[in-house]
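Dear colleagues,

As part of the handover before I leave the project, I'm documenting each prediction I ran so the next person doesn't have to rerun anything. This entry is a single chain, and its sequence is reproduced below.
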Amino acid sequence: MVNFLARIRASLRSVSEVSDNSILEIGSLSIDLLNHVVRKNDEVLKLTSTEFSILSLFAKNQGRVLTHQYILKEIWGYSYTEQTQYLRVFIAQLRKKIEDNPSKPSIIITVSGIGYRFES
């Protein structure tokens, strides 16, 4: 129940944060927050809802280091803040879809022992 309420709060928060400028342009990526559409070089990417949630969280906090615990809490809720393996799996999947070279990421940067930073 706690997890469900956390997801509702996160959804409400993200809806209230969406402004008139709901399309974020970051390098070759275009993220349409209202319609849940991501394009890279004008080609639509197929992302799961969790991948989209992670990507939009990163895009809204571009340039900031987001801790593992913060990302896990925002996406999955408080009961998942120690489940860093979940996050690693989803980051790897997301990198495969948005990075030019996923083995040498230039968009989602790992900050060792802390979390990730989203660069343009």
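The mean pLDDT is 87. Residues 95 and 102 are 5 Å apart (CA to CA).

All the best with the project,
I.
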